[in-house]
Amino acid sequence: MIEPLLELFFARYNYWMAIILMLIGLYTLIAKQNLVKKLIGLNIFQTAIFLFYISLGEVRGGTAPIYLPEGVDALYVNPLPHVLILTAIVVGVSVTAVGLSLIVRMHEECGVIDEDGLLKEMRHR
Amino acid sequence: MTLIDHLPVLIIVIPILASLLILLAGWWDRRLCYPISLITILLQFGAAIVILLQVMREGAIRYYLGGWAPPFGIELAIDSFNSFILATILLLAAATAVYARRSVEREIGPEKTISFYVLFQLLVTGLVGMTITGDIFNLYVFLEISSIAAYTLIASARKPRSYVASFNYLVLGSIAGGFILIGIGNLYVATGTLNMLDLARLLPASFELATVHAAFLFLVIGFSIKAAFFPLHLWLPDAYTESPSAVTILISTVMAKVSIYALFRIIFTIFSTAYIIDVFPVTGFILFIATVAMIAGAVLAIAQSDLKRMLAYSSVSQVGYIMFSLGVTNQVALEGGLLHILGHAVMKGCLFMVAGLIIYRMGTSRLSELKGIAKAMPISCAAFALAGASMIGIPPTIGFMSKYYIVLGALEAGHWVYAGILLLGSLLAVGYIWRFIEIAYFRDGRDRGSGARTLEAPASMLAPMVALALLCLLLGVFVEGLMEIVGPAASLLLGGA
Asked: Strand, helix or coil at B76?
């Protein structure tokens, strides 16, 4: 009973890990009250996607895609997903920066950075 | 190659350079920001018109960036569909740019105008890039450029509420971006390419793969969040209500429309109608949800006590109409849907401009405090009535024409019940539009002190509003010319010539 499940898991374990990480991130986003923790959840979610992309490019026994001199044969990993994810990492960093600066402003104005506290503050104004 | 041949790339490069120039010029003299921004947007609009005419005359343009041929290089692909969207969004961006000057001075403050125009320019750049790119990963990058600019612009009202609205949009928008990224990854695994036309060619061979189904769902859900398709609209009401007026106009018209464009592009160009009808039948489901969206959005709009929030919920309802045409998936309904993309952008832009003017003069947009406002602001309220008539769908406005074609398409496809509900939804639109009209024209307000003195806003804000209101009418009257643009676009989406 358990064997085929383990088989299923280990045959594609990189994707399963990405999915598990992604769900941890989404759970943090939904369940945590503190906005900084929410942002951390968002970062975990994005990291899961980065890992998914990076593991896509892997070729078993492959080497770094560097041009080798004539006559030397090598198996390369696929560099394209890695290049794509560099862009996505930059996007993730910028979103985090914007999010954190919003939290700083909220803290300056209201003195709280959790959801319930902010809702209470909003109602007072 | 002449300059005309390079227009597709210039329309993206010039605004990026302009945003840098605004930053530099702003350090020297803050008053330079506005003219640079306005000139750039007008140049872009001119370029969009030239591209639109060229595409209509000579067919699709494919521009290879740096001369690298796809699938290795990134290409810009402009066909009859996105040249139409491009012209639409730049028309609205130009109107907003004219309107923005006084509104920004009042609502954001003179010391922040430099950053406003830089972000404004970046937002438009991102959206234009999303519209004309032919590479799906490039689409994601431009999406994030525009999103980050939008988060910041929403927060630029600098009130606690706008920070919260911006943060909520940031979280939901980033999740949407993540979903889109996963979808793109899955498509790359299935086909080994990122070029849209290449994808369209290679995908049918792997239509049955679970990877492709997952990619479809991730992409559709991601872009549905971005387009605020009910029930994924939760970020929208706060974001529209709490941002400065000029920003509301820009994101409610331009940004929402580009997200819908991306959804259409993914569904029709990359996955094709064969996929959504035969392989993975979702059209019936989309039609159902779109109908719910039309009704729910309108009912929620009626329940609001704030003008801007009412208009925001009305946007949720109008997205439903456009998605309805996607659900029907035939030529006539799609023509109506594309008309509605233009029509809704024009009329919602006009309505939000009126709301912005009222905030500019009254400092509030609560409906209960606007009694008898038509006496003080006759031009604005007349513009609201005209655009509102278009929103309801009274002939001969553009709103009537687009809904007429959507209903016609639904009847042709045999969806009698849905067509009936759509007409009911239009009746609900009467509910919320008429509420403002009644308050503005037929209720006596408290004496505003200065008697009959009008409180109309400055001409630079009135002009774009009046122009858009007249456009609602003119586009409806001269709809024949528009059909010549929209017709080929709809048949292109359905996989024809």
From this structure: strand
